[in-house]
Amino acid sequence: MWWDRFARRRQMPQGSGPPLTAFVLAGGGSRGAVQVGMLAELVDRGVRADRVYGASVGAVNGAAYAGDPTPSGMEHLQRIWHGLSGDTIFPRGRAHGPWTFFQHRQAVHANTGLRRILEEGLRFDRLEDAAVPLEVVATSLHDGLERWLTEGPVVEAVLASAAIPAMFPPVHIGGELLIDGGVVDNVPISRAIDAGATRVYVLLCGPLHYRPRPARRPVEAVLTGFFVAVHARFARELAMVPSGVEVTVFSGGGEPSADYRDFSGTPELIAAGRAEVAAVLDAHGGAADHSGAADHGGAADHGGAADHGGASGAAPRARRAPPPARQSQPPGGMAST
Hints:
The protein is an alpha/beta fold. The chain is built from eleven helices and ten strands. The chain has helices at residues 2-11, 33-44, 57-67, 71-82, 86-89, 112-121, 154-161, 182-185, 189-194, 218-239, 266-283, and strands spanning 21-25, 51-55, 134-140, 146-149, 171-173, 176-180, 199-206, 246-252, 306-307, 310-311. Helix 2 packs antiparallel against helix 4, helix 2 (33-44) crosses helix 11 and helix 3 (57-67) packs antiparallel against helix 7 (154-161). The two termini are 21 Å apart.
């Protein structure tokens, strides 16, 4: 299981080769716009990934970055996000409303809108053709385990990783039905570290620590339990970061909206993502080194993750800046985690 692999990795000595930088992009529905600003700021500062790992909307943004990790590529991604709406991503049928969740079909929405955006927006056809090596995670309905997609048509892979349960239909790949990778591994930092990453930039779409509000309806209680389970894995992995691995977390701040179809907050979220990356890198000498990875003044030496106050102690913490004031309650929505 993943915790066994990660525990073994924690005991392995780190190599003396050049740093390997990974970008890990989490799921987060329409709040994925905050990752667009984060990526744009990282690119502008010369911070380049050697590997990219994505789940759900993080797979969407990760694929866009991996295909064109340049300022023009990030401008292209921002234009796409500015043009998104609930109707383009989650097209409605002739009948819509709460009762659509009880109809006899696989999902409330077709994935045709997202497919069109991916086909028109991505600048490569197969995962193995990306300018930066890209892996996206999906969840198998065969055994409930994660499936890492590293080759094959990029559109199908991203559609599978972003197939939010009940919202989008499962995707057939390799004889299996696959759904949203965020169900089993929403923040796949262990995958990056298993591959030898020594610097990991985690791009979240919401707060680092999940503090659910009291549920008012049974469906809210179900979703709260799901989100708690998803965030618990990330918390465990963050606490198990091996010595010699530097993890920098950009949280995205804010809280999700109740409407998963709401993309009205995209401009504010992109700006907030830029602001957070700028604040973190400025606080830690964030100029890129000659290899393209950012140097924050050294990796932490006690568990790998660093905080604003310097190297972490026995309980590692992620280095991050508090979200800007304008970001405290951004609009947006989270249909996935």
